[in-house]
Amino acid sequence: MPHVSVTINGRQYRMACDDGQEHHLARLAHELDQRIARLRTSFGEIGDMRLTVMAALLISDELAEMSQRMRRFEDELAVLQEGRQVVADHSQKTSAAIIAALNAAAERIERVTAALNGVGDSHDVPAG
Q: What is the mean pLDDT of each run of 10 residues along the chain (128 residues)?
C-alpha cells in the first residue's frame, strides 16, 4: 500500500492510500491546507485545532449542500424519465393509430378500385 507525505497547516503527515490514489490524496491534502490558510487569513491566529475544525465544518457544509442538490437533480431526473416514458407510450399509440388508419384507407381504396373495375367490366364504359 503506497504512502504519501502531505503537509497540512504546516505539519507533515504520512498517509497510506490505495494504489493509484497518491495524486488524489495529495490534491485533497493541498485543498484542505489552502482552506486552513484562507481561514487563518480571515480570522488570524485562533489555534490550529480550531482552524482545522472550522475547515472540516465548511467542507461538511459544502458536502451537505451538494448532497441536497444531487437529491434534487435525481428527483428531477426521475420526473423527466417518467415524462419520457409517457411520451414514448403516447408515440407508440399514435403510431399504431396512424398504421390502423392507413390500413383502413388502403382497404377502402382497394374496395373502391375493385368496385370501379367491376363497374367497368359490366358496363363496358371506355376509360379515358
A: 93 95 96 95 88 94 98 97 95 96 96 86 53
Q: Would strands 3-8 and 11-16 be described as parallel, antiparallel, or unpaired?
A: antiparallel
Q: What span, in angstroms and rounded, lies between the C-alpha atoms of 57 and 29? A: 16
Cell of 105: 384507407
Length in residues, the chain: 128
Euclidean distance between CA atoms 32 and 48, whole angstroms:
13
| Cα(7)–Cα(17) distance, integer angstroms | 15
Give the pLDDT of residue 124.
53
pLDDT of residue 44: 84
How high is the pLDDT of residue 118?
A: 83
Q: Which three cell numbers stand for residue 22?
A: 497518491
Helix (H) or strand (E) holding 6: strand 3-8
Cell of 69: 442538490
Residue 78 CA to its chain's centroid (Å): 10
The sign of the dihedral angle between the CA atoms of 4, 61, 36, 54 is negative
State the Cα–Cα distance between residues 5 and 33, nearest whole angstrom.
13
DSSP reduced 3-state for 124: coil
